[in-house]
Write a structure and sequence with these properties.
Two copies of one chain form a homodimer.
Chain A (H helix, E strand, L loop, with lengths): L3 E6 L29 H9 L8 E6 L3 H7 L8 E4 L5 H16 L3 E6 L3 E2 L2 H16 L4 E6 L10 E10 L2 E8 L4 H10 L2 E11 H11 L1 H13 L5 H8 L8 H6 L5 E6 L3 E2 L7 H4 L8 E3 L2 E4 L5 E3 L4 E5 L4 E5 L3 E6 L6 H10 L7
Parallel strand pairs in A: 1-2, 1-4, 2-3, 6-10, 12-14, 13-15, 14-16
Antiparallel strand pairs in A: 4-9, 5-11, 6-9, 7-8, 7-9, 8-10, 16-17
Helix pairs in contact in A: 3-6, 3-7, 6-7, 7-8
Amino acid sequence: MMKKTALIMAGGRGERFWPKSRKSLPKQFLSLTDDGRTMIQLTVERIRLLVEMEDIYVSTNQAYKELVAGQLPGLPPENILCEPMGRNTAPCIGMCAMYMAKKYGDALMMVLPSDHLIKYHKMYINALNDACGIAEKGNNLVTIGITPDYPETGYGYIKFRPEETEGNAYAVDRFVEKPDLETAKEYLETEEYLWNSGMFIWKVSTILDNFQKLLPAMYDGLEQIREAIGTQKQEMILEKVFPELESVSIDYGIMEKAQNIYILPGVFGWDDVGSWLAVERIQKSNESGNVVTGNIITIHSKNNIIQGGKKLIAAVGLHDLIIVDTEDATLICDKGNAADIKMVLENLKICNREEYL
Amino acid sequence: MMKKTALIMAGGRGERFWPKSRKSLPKQFLSLTDDGRTMIQLTVERIRLLVEMEDIYVSTNQAYKELVAGQLPGLPPENILCEPMGRNTAPCIGMCAMYMAKKYGDALMMVLPSDHLIKYHKMYINALNDACGIAEKGNNLVTIGITPDYPETGYGYIKFRPEETEGNAYAVDRFVEKPDLETAKEYLETEEYLWNSGMFIWKVSTILDNFQKLLPAMYDGLEQIREAIGTQKQEMILEKVFPELESVSIDYGIMEKAQNIYILPGVFGWDDVGSWLAVERIQKSNESGNVVTGNIITIHSKNNIIQGGKKLIAAVGLHDLIIVDTEDATLICDKGNAADIKMVLENLKICNREEYL
């Protein structure tokens, strides 16, 4: 089999874990599980079962380069690929594919989010291995789909054709955007839709062929970058070309238009850890249903998520709250209002209180 | 009229304002109103309308001497009377009466709590002036009673005889302990009970006569202290005699047994500021019913009491909570569970976490 590489996407700036996540410390660099390791550390550890450390790449932006290097000391420094600026996923993936083309000629490339959790590692590895097999055969683009438990409106969906298979995978009919609740319910009833996990598996040559065909202007820019790699002009060309690339997602720019796409159902306990509410799923609660970290006293309190540190937090008579204490900011939020945390951030932006963002 | 003096009782160690109040900083030294002045500062400011600064005394214990001196810079240092240890109110009041007897021979003595609020200062002063008149005439012990609005079970009550008056005051029938709710309701229906405000007015000579008659052993000890005042032995005698005095309240030791007690109804907007819930009565709330101090953002939140400082507190979807943030501890408490704050303190005591008490 062809050499396997992994590209871990770590440029995100999620706000849903405020105040623990900040512009300067997004979710992928936080520890949200019991064991103290950060999301990106867990991601690397998982994929190490399938990919050599020297073939793991992390794509991030310049601001997080030190964080990546600090949290992943075993990663070769040259494998941290920095975008000069955030331009959505297509330019980023394209640029990394060019790096890999230059280094390996061709290789299997697994694109993986840096901030999701997987419960069953062996099944995860088996699924990726299967996906690699399908990607290597012909010019297939493979994605991992998650069987929906409920009509989530926060994810993209992928429609597949149940009768058209390739190994354990199904041919993709189309990628669809986040649906409204009614539509999501219809999707579930058809049994022909899976959640889009953001994991993609393909050969470097296959994805670059698709860039050339579907995003030709971007491909030209990426070619210029490729030529400059390893030369003295590398930085200069990157700074000049990258900002001019179209800001478009890989889903919209490639996957919604490409041929030969297959989806492999992932049944390995996937969790995107999308908000503070997820902490209840991924950490153990005590007999009162409280999930607590830090220096906490709870009295007559049930089903709360409390994330503190050294400072004492006394919770008295509380139910169904999210409490997150950090050095300079404390969030106290009803679980039913978790989506309103973004209003706090909007408020802070309007008031130019950058220090809290 | 005889010289008027005030004894402000400031030895209390209230726990109901934890975590803002601590053993090292009890309620009387906190600012709980909008204007930033502490409870004891407000108390002194009020009584200054009737009593010269040099005739105002503050009784406290050694641990708070510096706090008193710091918060009341205009008070003569020798007017801070320190108990070697807390022995309830009777020994403390008796000792202070002895100091006053030595200094003035006789005087009118107003005993006042240091941690209550009064809304109408002129009516308050008029009431105390009336009380002084009644105390000066004969050997009367006068107390201020508050007309109950509702059957509070956290206060002592005083039964009076409506037909037996002395100026604006009524003869006291008896002092009663904190009642249960049923009994408190009955008290209100009789219209013959007032709340015990803890304010007492008498001549130094009258109260000492009562000590001699009703607490003769304590009186002997107080006499020894009196003789030592101003001598080299003062400290030594105080340290030796005071701890041996019976630990009993002035209510139980004297008022429940004495003759010639009168109660004057106080109608000056009294508030004992008994718990965090009182903050809603004494501070202005915003249009959402939130009473906030500090660096606070509220989103979809109503009727909360939030006391912060420099640290940002974001409240999202919260209703009827008490949130108090301090340097090393944060309380988050449902208003309906305010009485359970003491359980936090019990927990801290059991775990020997003295630093938070």
